## 1
Amino acid sequence: MGEPAPPATESGIHAPLDGLLRAFVHDGVVDYGCLQAHEAQLDTYLRVVARIDPSVLSRDRQIALWINAYNAFTLKLILSRYPAIASIKEIPRRWEREEWVVGGRRYSLDAIEHEILRREFHEPRIHFAIVCASKSCPDLAAEAYLAARLDEQLDRAARGLLADSRKGARVAREKGLLGDVHNKLYLSAIFKWFREDFARGGSLVDFVKGYLPADARTFVDVAGGDLALDFLDYDWTLNGE
């Protein structure tokens, strides 16, 4: 007998991943040791994803599927080397390997991110949802993404990153060498790497303002044209305990 048919409902499709995320992800930190002990459940989810044809799904269900698949594949990639690694960057060709199956086709993580999520959907908030297993990444959500709640989930992910002054956004008034004061907005390097996605139809600062905490948003408004933009260092250390 062959594999059983995938669940009929979206929540059923993503239930194995949702259960793992709720159990082993807390405030963006992944308990890879416990996750590894339940890797069979992750494998169950990967087998389901391998049989789902994205082309028959609605736009939001496709986005949710690709985000969940990307995150699940990344978790599987880390578990393949855990606990011997301290960073995803220790894994050769981590983003170029075509070993991840969706709808019967093989993809690399790069292909999912750049050729599908970015190119086909033009949704900049996906950068806050797909997570590369590193401390400076946006927090990995402790739940699967679902079409019915996608807009709310993506907004929450954006606000969560930009509320984190360590890795998302920070404002400061800094003195220069001549004693002059500069208003600075520091952002995650994600905004530098994918600036074109965030600035489509406007400016990067305009996009960011919509998700900044109130005090930081006021700072940016008051600074106006005197605001200087810079980017935070990126920590590629594993986002685990």
## 2
Amino acid sequence: MLLIVGSSFKLVFDTYTDRLPADDPITIYSSKVDLVFQVFFTLEMLLKIISFGFVMDDNSYLSESWSQMDFFIVTTGLIDTSLEGVDIAFLKVLRLLRILRPLRFLSHSSSMKTLIEALMASIPSIMNVGVVIVIVFLMFAILGVNLFAGKLQSCTVGFYKINTMEECFKVRGKWVTFD
């Protein structure tokens, strides 16, 4: 848990130091700290794989969805760390996936797991309510278009009532300026 919290604080720190040059001591120190976190997360993953098995057993490491998320986060971190000196656009996405590290906290907290699973189970009901709200907005939009059709496109200049915006700026062949 301390490693996850420390990694989260390091990510916050990186948002303020991302514009520093690569040879700056703060950038060098930050990359070394990131490497230490990556090593510890990889060791944790390997120890779990050794103790539970990888895939085939009933209680294996990848049989649980939270462990699958951990595996994905650690694996993308390893790929990013191994290709750190290379500047390819695809690798920027892998660097962006570092922000998923705080999600590892969810796999270690049973109450957070319960909360997230309840939220995921309620998504279909929330989508149904969203569809009803969109239909109500659509009904009011149609009503508004019918009630206000053409009524907001007129203006008066002097004693003349002008019906279109183009005529509003051109009165008797002259362009009217509004000061």
## 3
Amino acid sequence: MQALYFGIASLRLLRCHFDVLEADHIPYLQVFVLRIVAALKRRPFTVTWHECWSRSYWQEYLGWLGWVAWSVEWLAMQLPDQIIAASRQTAERLHSALGGRALITTVPNGIDLDTIRSAYPEAGISDLVVVGRLIDHKRVDVLLDVIALLHARGIFVTCRIIGDGPERGALAEQARSLGVADAVEFRPDVSEQKELYGLIKSARVFVSLSAREGFGMAVLEAIACGVTVLTTSAPDNFAQHLVTRYSRGLVCKPGLDDVAAAVQELVAEAGDRPGDERGADAWVADYDWAAMADLLADVYLTYGRQDRPAPACR
């Protein structure tokens, strides 16, 4: 109902003046309304796509209703004048669904490097840190199993879980039942970016076991903080492509034993060294907000000039 109301409320834009109309693809229904608005206002319509799900994934997610959701997403893909994809892998999936005629430009998510550089590690080093909304596909429950497995082997690791979500209560109960509650700190109270970066820098290893990431914003921020990063090779986890580029990154298989072995190895290698942005690779600077803003402006200006072709996928 919220998605439907949001879509209908988008008709208010008919009273506004604008040169370019851009929307996020979620929750899809507003894309249909905004296509009408853009047509009536005779303005270019751009939609940013962060994740492109397949029909099989929708069916796994929603059961028999999955084919309806996939049809809605596929129809929404047809409506923009051009699409901005948050990653090259998302662009490839969009092209696979739409064909070569689609106008798709890749503009990754940007990060605030100045704020990251000005953040200092918080007091109290943790072995592991997790950042994200606490929902099922983030697989934080698997990490708790990993911690319990390592404790059983006599390897005492600590973990800080930053974020909130519907799974927090169940995860806290899981930590208690596994006997690792004393080693796991839940931090749902972090609201300032600088504090977040300080907590990331105070960890030895940043862990992301998410089964699905259209880009991997938290992973990129951890890389910029100079922390060792671990993620998995899950097919829908596009954050692995960032970690593969990183000199202090490791991509392992998503199984419990594989993750446990990787965590044990990385924590041992990190020693007493927490994160330090000076250890980040030089290519991270390409994702600074200023660089991303230039790319986005180029997309808008190029398409907005009627005498020039829209940019192709890059």
